[in-house]
User: Fold this.
Amino acid sequence: MSAALSRHRRLAQVFSRSGGLKLCEHLLPWRGLVTLNYHRIGTPEGSLLDWDLWSASEDDFAAQVATVKQYFDVVSVDDLPQVFRTLSRRWSTRQRFVLITFDDGYRDNYEAAFPILREHNVPSTFLITTGFVGDRHIAWWDEIAWMIRRCQRDFIELPINGKAQQLVLDRPTLEEAIRTCLSVAYRLDARKLATFLDELAEATSSGRAPQSLADDLWMNWDMIRTMRSCGMAIGAHTVSHPVLSRLSAEDQNAEICESRLCIEAELREAVTAFSYPVGRADSFNEDTKRALVANGFDWSFSYHGGFCRSGNADRFNLPRVGIERDMDQQAMRCCTAWPHLFAR
Assistant:
């Protein structure tokens, strides 16, 4: 956990114990839209994949959904036009909106999250990486974690930032080693990423992850159609989950266009929402936004914190707050009760 995040956790505890949390939840101290983002629901213990992708256990997710339903207007991406019209009216009595999103298309979105959302009658928006769902590819971040977790060596050496770097693989530092490799991968284009994965496979002697690993990892289109028929919204998250800013304008357009066309062919309706893979401020650029406009998208979500305070938001850079597995219920409630400080 970063030092800044740790400070936020401590501040959330103080805020909750002082009574400020309940005061904010009841007295409507802010107006705007907070978007919460999840990836996987469940517990990662025992998995060889990337543990950071698990956002919450089923019990924690159920508690989080119940909380936002109790205190806020929970909306879908289909509601965004009305949400921003409402926020543009200064004296509107409806002020606090929460949008729940999921990225990638993991199977536990359907098996674990969807039943909880239906039980509480709360909508969510699922942004699908179509190549993972359709072709059953293992994601590169999961493959990186899989190779390192299977490694039987005490350390490995990899060329990182142009020079050899030793990574210790004992249990206390294993997660740190995985995150180091992920931070390298985030900066690479598709060709260099493939080379890096081959180098990691050789260094760990684990080999590349087998295709069969992805067989039960992702939702299928029947599951996605079922969720849509029950009021969940579906959007796009590219075909292969590249960092779009690392691609040419032509290749960005292909990732964006083909993901939209695939979903529209499966659902037989227009797709209006998109989320940027990785979603950092440098993960997309003006070429990305132009491709979204050209392909008929109305909204796109980033992933570097913040919230929309008014109806004048940049519709191609709607901020989201990442929900993490170590975020307790107090921190989650503070995030929505006082987003000016905690929605980061």
